[in-house]
Amino acid sequence: MLSVIKANKIISDMREKNANTENTKVWYQLRLPNDNGKSISVRGTVIDNDSVVSSEVIFQIPLDTATKIPRSKYDIERRYATEHFQPSIMSLKDSYFEKIQVYFNLAVKENLERVANIERGTVTLENGDNVHQFASPIHHLCETIGQIERVDGSRTIGSRGLELKADEAEDIQQALARLESILSNMGYGCKSFNVEKYQNDEIAKFMDNKYDMGRMIGGLDKLEKQSKFEQYCLARFTNCDENLLTPLSENATSNTTSRVRATFEALRGRNVKVVKRPK
Q: How far apart are CA 148 and CA 238, in angstroms?
């Protein structure tokens, strides 16, 4: 299979061959920002038979919002080309790319520092805790989940109120897994801090009481309780469009899948492989 590098080289060679034909030529003009400038532009002038056919800005590159440094000319062409860019006869010159990179390196650093300084402010939560702005959206999310689930405090299967939907819960879990992975790889594993601080807060206690299967369906024998539990799981997981849920991997087992999800999959005829947990 042709590698991306080889493919890009072939395309680059094609552009160079087509950039200046016998009758058609393209002249480029790089406009770098002045002292107060916030963007870089490249103008492409197409000359056909010694007559100017068009002269338009083919790349418009904002610097005040840049947060990622483009690593190749292709990145710039893909992200910042205007409608006047004609890839069949135009390309970004190597010398222009090198100069643009200098500005990008400085601009991205300044922009990220500005964003970080804003986010490093502190806010006070409703419970009185003073936290960094970084963490406030997560705390707000927890409060929102509590508000949604409290709309109907019923613990019966037949009377279900407004709930956090399964696809919403999945997206939150994925974001949480990503965040935990990033922090852990930085050396900030969850065990580095006081992880018990919010394990028994008001919302957590409410959820524990609302969804505790033993108290909810007490007084039944083991088989009846399991049947009721499965009904509950099915109702809980079917409160959204099933197509929005990411299918389990082929390697999923009872050790890597929650009991709730395994029950849902079984009720859909997709049994999760049962593996005994190591003692």
A: 17
